[in-house]
Design brief:
single chain; alpha/beta; 15 helices; globular; binds flavin mononucleotide
Length: about 350
């Protein structure tokens, strides 16, 4: 059981790195939007400022590396490299599920390495919603969060992933109440996220009623867990069942637009944001921060810390040039500004 979680994390990293795990028919939806080019921006590019605040930190860029790893040696090295690059670039970092460390103290080091290498940025821990109702002890979780020195915890809602995993736990009865209790009792901000199938308007509204102020909509169009779980099993029937759900989910852009309609909800956008322009569009459509997972994994595995920092640079310069060519000096002018981005379908 203990090593089961760790082995599963290893397999996820390996499959996401080496195989085609993207949606094929559903797209993130950013291709349907384009910026309205402003040929007369009346500013210099040096005037652009996209600093933003998140969890009490000043970020140089509204970018986050989404939850992926921790628990074993490969995850530790990955978390170290992600932390070094994120700290250098002044962006936020979310760690993979800390369940391995709750089950096995030996796994703790792979999470501690983040704060050791990233003293200046927000770091977010992560746990699955089903753990909250099953074997969850607030006391143990709290101890762990203090040790890892995080600034918030995110809870992942992953009913489809749990339903498709051979060893999954698709037991969501009581999860809403558990989230509410956690938010009330934990002295840390609680963020709620999906894992790549998106949050609907109704779910976001319900989360707001539970007092949740930050969500990561983690929409469809990027990494597909149906595909990852399909590849993890040799059982033919399991593989066929997983394949029925290859194209299931709420596209990332749709989920951003649902979230924007929920007043005062803070939005992190992820799911298929695999280039700088999609990142810029996510912010223009109203996200507070946007981020990616598999893209950073692959950048790191091919070119190490430099690969990650170069990718961040591409995102940052694409945002800068997009803001410049839309005539927006800062994020207040750019974020959620309907006059600078329009749908081709209109
Ligand atoms: C290898 C891997 C491991 C992941 N592990 C977690 C996790 O532990 N907790 C979580 O909430 N999301 C996890 N995710 C989901 C990501 O945080 C993200 O929501 C999803 O991959 C969509 O982003 P992308 O299309 O940029 O990959 C993982 C993703 C990958 C690729």
């Amino acid at each position: 059981m203990k090593n089961g979680t760790i082995n599963r994390k290893k397999e996820h990293l390996k499959i996401a790195q080496n195989h085609s795990v993207h949606f094929e028919e559903i797209t993130s939806g950013f291709e349907h939007y384009h910026f309205v080019h402003n040929a007369l921006p009346e500013m210099n590019i040096e005037d652009i400022d996209f600093h933003t605040t998140f969890l009490g930190y000043d970020l140089k860029l509204p970018l986050i590396i989404c939850s992926m790893s921790g628990g074993e040696q490969e995850g530790e090295m990955l978390n170290r490299d992600l932390a070094i690059a994120a700290n250098k670039s002044g962006i936020a970092l979310a760690l993979g599920s800390i369940r391995p460390a709750l089950e096995n103290r030996d796994a703790l080091g792979s999470f501690l390495v983040a704060r050791e290498n990233a003293p200046d940025i927000p770091i977010i821990a992560n746990i699955g919603a089903t753990q909250l109702v099953k074997d969850f002890k607030t006391k143990d979780l709290l101890k762990l969060l203090k040790k890892i020195q995080v600034d918030a915890i995110s809870i992942h809602l992953n009913p489809l992933q749990e339903a498709l995993q051979p060893e999954g736990e698709p037991h969501f009865k009581g999860v809403s109440r558990a989230i509410e209790i956690l938010r009330e009792t934990l002295p840390y901000p609680v963020i709620v996220k999906e894992v790549g199938f998106g949050l609907s308007f109704d779910v976001i509204k319900r989360l707001q009623k539970m007092g949740i102020q930050w969500i990561d909509i983690a929409g469809a169009g990027g990494t597909s867990w149906s595909r990852i779980e399909h590849m993890r099993t040799d059982d033919n029937v399991h593989r066929r069942i997983a394949s029925q759900f290859f194209e299931w989910g709420i596209p990332t852009v749709d989920a951003i637009l649902h979230a924007v309609r929920v007043k005062q909800m803070h939005i992190i956008a992820s799911g298929g944001i695999d280039d700088g322009l999609k990142f810029a569009k996510a912010i223009a459509l109203g996200a507070d921060l946007a981020g990616a997972a598999t893209l950073f994994l692959r950048a790191r595995n091919s070119d190490g810390v430099e690969g990650i920092t170069n990718l961040i640079k591409v995102f940052s310069e694409t945002l800068r040039i997009s803001m410049f060519c839309c005539g927006c000096r800062n994020l207040e002018e750019f974020r959620g500004n309907q006059s600078i981005i329009s749908s081709r379908q209109k």
